[in-house]
Amino acid sequence: MLTIADGRSAWARRMRDLMALHLSDLGGEAAVSAAEKSIIRRAATLTVELERMEERFATDGEADADALDLYSRTSGNLRRLLEAIGLRRRPRDVTPNRTGYIEGHAV
What we know:
Layout: H1 10-25, H2 34-60, H3 65-85, H4 98-104
Helix pairs in contact: 1-2, 2-3
């Protein structure tokens, strides 16, 4: 994974959290293709930036026309990315394998 910063900023932490949430919704990292991971990363990036814009709107008490246009276009792009990977959660198989089950219940 390409890393630009050291990953300790609030922005990087929020992005990691969002990526983990999306991966979980799709059944876990093992159930997700490389292409889906790429889309998840881009969706997380757009989400963090949209959240930053929302914070600025709230702090300023308004949004100018250019900022609102950018927010609207970014939101639409985010929706398309999320639709590409699916908006529904995928169940993750949590059924233990026979050996693990027997070992966990051994007397």
